[in-house]
Amino acid sequence: MCELIAEIEASEKIRVVIAGIGISSRTMGTAHAASDYDIKCIFVQPRSSYFGLKSSATTFKHHFAAAVGGLDVEISGWEARHALQLLSEDNPTVLGLLLSPVIYIGEEWRSRLREVAEKTCNRQRLMHHWYNHARRNYQSYILNSDTPLRKRYVHVLRPLLSIAWQNKHGTASFPPATIPELLEQVEALGGFSAEEVATVKTLIERLEELPEALPREPSLDALLARLLESERPVGTKPPVPTSDVWHNLCVELINAEAPW
User: How far is CA 74 from CA 62, 68, 93, 115, 259, in A?
Assistant: First the structure.
């Protein structure tokens, strides 16, 4: 994987400072035989790009077909200023990189950014992000389909389980990345019946069914309907001013890592 990232660094004339697997089946513990690799990065431009009148790209995306074990690899990235601005707004996708269990490059910077995120993240706003993601996926891919892809249930369940976990833990940290661990901890906190837990376990144990379009599962539908109602976030806490913290860290990162 690092070889592909090095190719991108050379072609884009950038330096990748953090790279790892983003929120996907490979971080959720639901990867199957056909699961591809979704790599997320934070990068810096050459030092001269931060001065002058020419604007530079804030993102990139590269696709490598059958690059690792015959599986596709997609690598996308955010420029450091853009990434840290998103983190200051509690963006769950960029945060997902900081929480990833699989990091290829930049463990030290990942830890620094995660430490700041743990202290500054508005958990209530983050839960609203999660809830909206779950609701959109449910309405778009499950509600009006007789044979939704099984993985769509996973895409709705994970954010709802994350909300349930966060509601119990407050600002202690962030939920586990993998669904099996997340389910185990949520089950231990109570609020889920043995039948509901068994329903989720069956879903994630049948990995090879996840990419398939199969008839609706009534027990999963019932669980999603309950969670969409019970885990709906109430209100929004005013965001804590954090721009100075992220600004100072961004300046430090660029000063330390920007090439040339």
Answer: 6, 11, 15, 27, 24
Residues 164 and 90 in one domain: no
**What pTM does this model have?**
0.92
Total domains, the chain: 2
For residues 29 and 81, membership in a common domain is answered with: yes
CATH number at residue 251: 3.30.460.10
For 155, the token pair is 């895409």
pLDDT digits (tens, 9 = 90+) for 180-223: 999 999 999 887 899 999 999 999 999 999 999 999 999 999 99
Q: Is 249 within the bounds of a domain?
A: yes
Measure Cα distances from 182 to 166, 197, 225 in Å: 11, 11, 19
Q: Cα dist. 26→10, 20, 29, 102, 153 in Å?
A: 27, 11, 6, 9, 16
In-domain check, residue 235: no
Residues 216-226: tens digit of each pLDDT:
999 999 999 99
Tokens of 87: 């983190």
Let me know whether 214 and 247 are in one domain.
Answer: no
Q: What is the pLDDT of residues 102-146, one digit of tens each?
A: 999 999 999 999 999 999 999 999 999 999 999 999 999 999 999
User: Strand 37-44 to strand 71-79: parallel, antiparallel, or no bridges (unpaired)?
Assistant: parallel
Tell whether the model's pLDDT for residue 97 goes beyond 80. yes
> How far is the C-alpha of 197 from the C-alpha of 190, rounded, in Å?
11
Give me the pLDDT at residue 173, please: 87
